[in-house]
Design brief:
single chain; globular; 46 strands; signal; Lipovitellin-phosvitin complex, chain A, domain 4; Vitellinogen_b-sht_shell; Vitellogenin 3, phosvitinless; alpha+beta; phosphoprotein; Lipovitellin-phosvitin complex, beta-sheet shell regions; Vitellogenin_N; 25-stranded antiparallel beta sheet
């Protein structure tokens, strides 16, 4: 048999078409999306047609399509949901398919495909799906073989197996294509340049798995093999998490059956045709085809103008959540409008502030040359404000679909005079261009140096002219670009590694080090060389060395490199650098994210080596903290990093930064970063603050203020304070407060400049009454992935996140007497403010998985809508001289929905012929009863509504939620998101509410005196106090606070609270009295406190403060002047039943926790109504702890501090007494908090 098979294979060299014959085939293709469960909705498409192939020449053939039928599916398989014909779509597609298609075919492979110019790429792709059956490679010497060949998915790896059907003599060919690892893959990404591929996460799971298999029945003929039957099956599993935990499924099938073969004369061509490319799938208008909607795009300008005007009205005073999705219609219309149309829209909408704002927010989503041309024209004409310009350019370049031509066009903004007309606009131009280069390099490899050349020239010129501000701008832009070719320029700024050293301040050198942050993934070895050289140089500033260490570890150094760093840290004398490096190593040692897997092992060993020397350095030294979490089932994780950089010469940190990352579907995304640099301020404070004792007293505040008053001594060219922020790994904003800016702020409050002060103008405007209405639409996230399917239809995975923010308010201020000479006169005035307004945001989030073309859509769609709304109306009265503050909220009977969230997953079907009639079916059936022959799923339908009402104030707060889920256990964690979800928080106020705060120094009222005398007689601990003592002490009310509800002419109800302070020698006494106000109530709470050698508090509450009482005391001391001791005791005589129950629960919980932490248990009879705890420092790294409950005691001696991150005992070669940097007064004040 094998010999016979070999003979036939020698004869059967290729799949062949005879140019003298006509082949008639029946073709059918369908694709479905869902979970593959009969009780869950799915959607799909089906195409049927007859395909006739006729020879034109020896290698050129004509394909004619007839009898086309197009149908869609949307519903539940167990409810007999089937395909429904869509005649209008059939007619539209048939009109294009009726045109002739020419293709080359030789040696079993499809060559050039040709069609009429008016035939769309989408229809040509359907033809590719039919012709891909004829793309088969046969080998004459093997029956099992593998090779790399070009197909509809790209240049992919294929495995073939050939067998013979002994009954018919036909050959059965099986072809399996690996569509996931193609060299020239027919796939495309959009909006994912800012995320880094995490290759190591692939070892823990996949979020997308695809398979492709073809089966052919081939009949041997004299010309070669003739395909009589063929079947293709492509399956794809997708989940935002790990496919092992359930997935959405795509199943694409197609069949080809030979109907007849006839002799015929060679076909003639039908009109002119043009090349449409080879068999590989071609993408068309992906930016225009937004998957979550479909609309008619004819005559787009008036449609877009009408929508913008409607959205501006609907979302003016508040947000109409029902209209927020219409903003995507605007985005799509803008993407098809030609440049001239956009200019025309600008002329019509620019005069109205609301329409103008909506237009500018929408045009940035055009994403191609047109938006660049539009903004270039605006910069030339200068008809945008600086704020409008930097907002528009920032978003336009961020959302630009990058090409070499567009990058070249964007360079013009770096040279336009208008770009430098405002400091922050120039920052935005430079930073945004850097971000554009970074995106360019993400999609084009190698990335040409010409893209980053303008930024290199700016950096070089700034260095030549010694313009430090421009140096920082250029370095930050280069940091955004992340181009490897910029390393040579960056090195020129770095101490110790530059060929020609330049004397630069630390804040410029720091910017140069940070500029390497994105090059770590593109040229890690070069970055390692530079950062390692910086780190090892002892004479380089500490801040620069620490930043170099941070960038070094972003390159994921090898075990050998980490070992080298560890060896140097053992000899490091700069404890700031050592502390920073050690704490960062601790974070990596405990990391669980896949990208840090190897680095975590190396860092763990380093921490063990360094712990004896560096493990006990306090937070007075620099720190770098990394905390993360990753779950393999979800293939999702989060990480956060915190950096505090200090040097030995300054008490104030040089820089503090916080950043967060998201690990999701095999990618790492830098979500945000926020940093503050205090270059000028740290120099002002120096190594210590004169008069600062560290006990956080008023004297310490005065000491700090006296230092700040010396701001005139600061350097003129050094920033006093700098802030910066980045989103998705790209720095988008930074601002420096210079000495001149600080001077202008102080001058604005001075009497000398009062008449020209902007504060005076603001006060006058507020007196007349001001209104402000701001609405902003913002497409935060648009990430899309496209892949060809065997049918010639594109499968798409898309995520969209859009928000509409609205803030509007009215405010009017009356000041009596009004200030006439300076802002400080307000300290002698009464201020009345009346205001009302609204602040809110509605967020729309979609995930789409399905087929998306300009003609039709079919797939699964997750949709989440989250409105947040905070309306207000209030009036305030501030009497500054008398230190009185009043706040009134008028009554309102309308229920306010503060927050709500609604989400569901749908099976969706849309088509361009019926754009307003989409088929959208919730994936879960309203009926929870599956068919008898269906495996019954688990059902989960929790629902709840909880309300809290405060009858006194007439305020009610309600929280409600409802979830509906049907799932199978193998679908964890996917089933968490598959179904309906609704949550809401609502509030209602039916009474007027009045708050009053009095901070004036008033004598204690007689009623309060009598009450305190009564309390003194009741308290054994207060027996020494007499009424004479109380009456003659200087007891004063620190504050009086009232919160009343007022209903018409009825008596106010609510609470009245007052705090009294009685200073005595060495003791600070205070009393707080809270009284309920209203008819038939005598509830009060009385709290006596004293702070002396120990802190004490005695609490009584109930009827006239006599129903319940409890006392607490705490003390801090030193044993033998070296060992700090903390003691705390709680005693009670009578407490409420609720508190008793809470206490019993805590008592049951404590033994287990104590055992977990190694405490010993001792059964002993302690006071029944007392709990106490004592902590004594035994040594630098251990304490003695004893806790006493009424019936049991827990104790542990020499409790070692253990590093939570590494699990190792932390020791120190150079012990420092614990708490040596705190005074006893500081400890006592900490106890009061």
């Amino acid at each position: 048999m094998r010999g016979l098979l070999f003979c036939w294979l020698v004869a059967l060299t290729d799949i062949a078409l005879n140019p003298k014959k006509a082949y008639e085939y029946r073709y059918e293709g369908e694709v479905k999306f869902g979970l593959g469960k009969p009780n869950l909705a799915e959607s799909g498409l089906r195409i049927k047609c007859k395909a006739t192939i006729t020879g034109v020449s020896e290698q050129m053939f004509l394909l004619q399509v007839s009898e086309l039928s197009f149908a869609d599916l949307n519903g539940f398989p167990d409810k007999n949901a089937g395909y429904n014909p869509t005649p209008k779509v059939t007619k539209r597609i048939a009109a294009e398919l009726a045109k002739p298609f020419m293709f080359e075919h030789a040696n079993g492979h499809i060559g050039d495909i040709r069609a009429s110019a008016e035939v769309s790429t989408a229809v040509v792709n359907i033809i590719r799906g039919i012709l891909s059956f004829f793309q088969v490679t046969l080998k004459t010497t093997e029956h099992i073989y593998e090779l790399e060949e070009t197909g509809i998915h790209g240049k992919c790896h294929s495995n073939y197996a050939i067998d013979e059907n002994e009954e018919t003599g036909d050959w059965i060919i099986t072809q399996v294509v690996d569509v996931t690892k193609c060299k020239e893959r027919a796939a495309m990404y959009r909006g994912m340049s800012s995320s880094v591929v995490d290759k190591l996460s692939k070892e823990r799971g996949e979020s997308i798995v695809s398979t492709m298999k073809y089966n052919y029945t081939v009949k041997p003929t004299a010309e070669g093999g003739l395909i009589t039957k063929a079947h293709g099956l492509e399956q794809q599993h997708f989940t935002p998490f790990n496919v092992k935990g359930g997935s959405l499924k795509m199943q694409a099938m197609k069949n080809l059956v030979l109907l007849s073969v006839n002799d015929t004369a060679r076909a003639r061509t039908y009109g002119p045709v043009e090349s449409k490319g080879n068999i590989v799938y071609k993408f068309e208008d992906v930016d225009i085809n937004i998957p979550v909607m479909m609309q008619n795009l004819d005559n787009p300008v008036p449609k877009a103008i009408e929508l913008i005007k409607r959205l501006a009205v609907a979302n003016s005073q508040s947000i109409d959540s029902a209209t927020t999705e219409d903003v995507f219609k605007v985005y799509q219309l803008m993407r098809v409008i030609p440049y001239e149309g956009l200019e025309n829209m600008w002329k019509q909408l620019a005069e109205n502030p609301k329409h103008r704002r909506w237009f500018l927010d929408s045009i940035v989503e055009v994403g191609d040359e047109r938006v660049l041309n539009f903004l270039e024209n605006r910069f030339k004409i200068k008809d945008l404000t600086s704020i409008e310009a930097w907002q528009s350019l920032l978003m336009a370049l961020q959302h630009l679909a990058v090409t070499p031509e567009r990058v070249e066009m964007a360079k013009v903004f770096l040279k336009m005079p208008f770009s430098k007309s405002n400091t922050y606009l120039w920052h935005t131009v430079a930073l945004s261009y850097g971000s554009l280069v970074n995106k360019y390099c993400a999609y084009y490899t190698p990335c040409p140096v010409s893209a980053v050349q303008p930024l290199l020239e700016i950096a070089t010129e700034a260095l030549r002219s010694n313009n430090k501000e421009e140096m920082v701008v250029a370095l930050k832009a280069l940091g955004n670009a992340g181009h490897p070719a910029s390393m040579k320029t960056i090195i020129r700024y770095l101490p110790g590694v530059a060929a020609t050293p330049v004397d630069l301040p630390v804040w410029v050198q720091s910017a140069a080090v940070k500029a390497m942050r994105l090059i770590t993934t593109r040229d890690p070895h070069k970055v390692q060389d530079v950062t390692m050289a910086l780190f090892l140089q002892k004479d380089v500033p500490s801040e620069v060395r620490m930043l170099a260490f941070r960038i070094l570890f972003n390159t994921k150094p090898s075990m050998a490199l980490v070992s080298t760093v560890t060896a140097h840290l053992l000899e490091e004398r700069d404890l700031q650098v050592a502390s920073f490096a050690y704490s960062y190593l601790q974070g990596f040692a405990s990391s669980t994210t896949p990208d840090n897997h190897h680095l975590s092992i190396a860092s763990s060993l380093a921490v063990r080596i360094l712990a004896p020397r560096l493990g006990r350095l306090s937070y007075y030294y620099s720190k770098a903290k990394l905390v993360d979490l990753f779950d393999d089932n979800w293939l999702t994780g989060i990480s956060s990093e915190y950096f505090m950089l200090k040097n030995a010469s300054n008490i104030i940190p040089s820089e503090i930064m916080f950043k967060g990352k998201l690990h999701f579907i095999g990618r790492i995304m830098d979500l945000f970063a926020l940093g503050i640099s205090a270059e000028g301020i740290k120099d002002l404070f120096g190594t210590a603050i004169p008069g600062f004792k560290g006990d956080f007293s008023i004297n310490d505040l005065k000491a700090i203020f006296s230092v700040l008053q010396k701001w005139e001594t600061l350097e003129n060219d050094k920033p006093v304070l700098s802030v910066f922020s980045s989103i998705f790994g790209q720095e988008w904003f930074f601002a420096d407060m210079s000495k001149e800016t600080l001077r202008n702020i102080i001058t604005a409050f001075s009497a000398a400049t009062w008449k020209s002060s902007p504060l005076r103008a603001l006060m006058e405007s507020l007196h007349k009454g001001i209104s402000w209405d701001y609405t902003r639409s913002f497409l935060t996230y648009e990430a899309r992935y496209f892949q060809a399917t065997t049918l010639g239809l594109p499968v798409e995975i898309s995520k969209y996140y859009n928000s509409i923010t609205a803030i509007n308010f009215n405010a009017k201020v009356a000041v009596n007497p009004p200030p006439t000479e300076s802002f400080g006169q307000l300290l002698n005035s009464e201020i009345i403010l009346e205001t009302d307004g609204f602040a809110g945001v509605t967020k729309d989030y979609w995930v789409f998985y399905g087929v998306n073309t300009k003609l039709f859509q079919s797939g699964s769609e997750l949709k989440i809508k989250t409105p947040i709304a905070v309306p207000w109306k209030l009036s305030t009265k501030i009497n500054v001289p008398e230190k009185k503050f009043e706040l009134d909220f008028p009554r309102s009977k309308e229920e306010i929905k503060l927050f709500s969230m609604r989400s569901d997953v749908y099976a969706v079907s849309r088509n361009i012929e019926e754009p307003d009639s989409p088929k959208i079916t919730p994936i879960m059936s309203p009926s929870t009863d599956p068919s008898d022959d269906v495996l019954k799923p688990n059902t989960w339908h929790p629902t709840s509504r909880m309300c809290y009402e405060c009858n006194i104030y007439g305020v009610g707060l309600c929280m409600e939620y409802e979830l509906r889920r049907q799932y199978y256990h193998e679908e964890y964690p996917l089933y968490y998101f598959l179904g309906y979800s609704h949550m809401a928080i609502k509030i209602a106020q039916v009474e007027k509410i009045h708050f009053e705060l009095d901070l004036g120094p008033i004598r204690q009222p007689m009623s309060a005196r009598l009450l305190l005398e009564t309390l003194s007689r009741l308290s054994k601990k207060k027996q020494t106090l007499s009424s004479h003592t109380v009456q003659n002490s200087t007891t004063e009310a620190i504050f009086n606070f009232k919160a009343f509800a007022m209903s018409g002419n009825q008596q106010p109800e609510g609470y009245d609270a007052a705090m009294f302070y009685t200073p005595e020698t060495g003791i600070h006494n205070g009393q707080i009295i809270v009284s309920q106000v209203g008819a038939n109530t005598n509830w009060k709470m009385c709290v006596d406190t004293s702070l002396g050698a120990e802190a004490k508090a005695h609490v009584r509450w109930g009827a006239e403060c006599q129903t319940y009482d409890m006392s607490m005391k705490a003390s801090a001391a030193y044993i033998n002047f070296t060992r700090p001791e903390l003691k705390a005791t709680v005693q009670w005589n009578s407490i409420s039943e609720y508190m008793v129950e809470i206490g019993k629960r805590i008592e049951r919980y404590i033994p287990g926790v104590a055992f977990l932490y190694g405490f010993s248990l001792e059964n002993e009879r302690n006071p029944k109504q007392e709990v106490s705890a004592a902590v004594v420092a035994a040594w630098t790294d251990s304490v003695d702890v004893k806790i006493k409950l009424p019936e049991v005691s827990f104790f542990i001696y020499t409790y070692l501090f253990v590093s939570v991150l590494t699990g190792t005992v932390v020791e120190s070669l150079d012990p420092i007494p614990i708490c040596s940097q705190f005074t006893e007064g500081a400890l006592q004040r900490m106890l009061t908090f």
